[in-house]
Amino acid sequence: MKANEIADYFVDRTTFAMGLSDNIRRMLLTPDRQLQVKIVLERDNGEVVTFTGFRVQHSNARGPYKGGLRYHPLVDRDEAQGLASLMTWKTALVDIPYGGGKGGIDCEAASLTPRELEILTRKFVRAVGSVIGPYDDIPAPDMNTNARVMAWIMDEYAKIYGFNPAVVTGKPVDLFGSLGREEATGQGVFLTTEAFLQERGMEMSRIRLAIQGFGNVGSWAAHFFHRAGAKIVAVSDVRGAIYNPEGIDVVALREHVRRYGAILGFEGGDAMPGDGLLTCDCDVLIPAAMGGVVTRDIARGIRARVIVEAANAPVLPEAEDFLTDKGVIVLPDILVNAGGVTVSYYEWVQNIQQLRWTPAQILEGLTSKMREAYGRVSALSREKGVTLREAAYIIAIGRVAKAVTLRGAY
Ligand code: NAD
Questions:
Q1: From the CA of 407, how far away is ligand 1's center (Å)?
Q2: pTM value?
């Protein structure tokens, strides 16, 4: 199942359960705009390569389109559309004044030199520049893009349209970025899980976690869980995984990954095949890499009691129904990983107001947003006897449907 099919499935199911009309359902499912562009890159060795870039704008009913930019060979229009749709529901769920967008380039970022990446990014901005803007569509980091890439976007956009740092978020702190943005998604993953555990009377110090993916989201989530006393027993990245039932030293692992660029070679755990992580012995499983990794087959082997969707759409619907029947609780992506876009919103506000918030202001804002969103989702889930994902979609779709209706159709 592709990301757009997964997103559409949940929207379909929820609009039906909510009794919304077919017309509203179709309006919510159909993206506003899909842009596909060709990007030709002359590599450092003289080879000329052609890539395809995408920007999908799903809905701006509640504010400018907002969503990340992904550099990965599997990026295509369907994936961008599905992820753009998820952004619409995510921004609505945490009630920030944005819609949903997403984009990317179908490149293997690790095989490109920094200079090639910069040229590729600048060419992408030239190709999609007319549809992005501080009040139109605001990109941010996603897989294989980071603050450096966001700085190039800001700079290239300024050359064509004039200085306006609010066109992109996730910028370096030294270049109009926000304090706390880099760690925000991982911190949001932690805050949501903490709220869930507290509500159920489960102690953080007794929790054994496994985390798939050790990039921005996975490594920061690991940091916050480790700091709070949880035991991280397994971690993986694209090249492999490690397991340590006594708990991995996250501080040492983060330093190892910073130096060597991968988990491979870290001696604080036993190496195991990467796909073994999802079914390893743990209490909480955190997929923080790719979408679609928890299939029905994998679900059969999952031993965790709770799955925290730090990545976008890691659990397939067919697997979720099976897991729910087994009593496994899934904390849904549009809630769990909304911390990134929340602090992106704070960055945008700071850029527009030309001021800087303190770390305490950012943390207070993020913490209250995540706790409030979790509280609403959890309460509705209990009230209606539905899963946390169904409750999250009911809240998000209700807000977007209301905005769409208030705007009218003329
Ligand atoms: P990243 O590029 O920083 O890190 C990705 C990590 O996943 C790397 O460690 C990589 O080695 C690993 N990985 C890739 N394929 C893997 C595989 N098959 N098995 C195991 N590990 C694999 O990306 P990120 O920003 O951390 O994003 C991770 C996920 O979180 C994505 O689904 C993204 O859409 C989602 N997300 C990110 C943000 C954000 O602010 N960065 C916000 C919301 C959601």
A1: 36
A2: 0.96
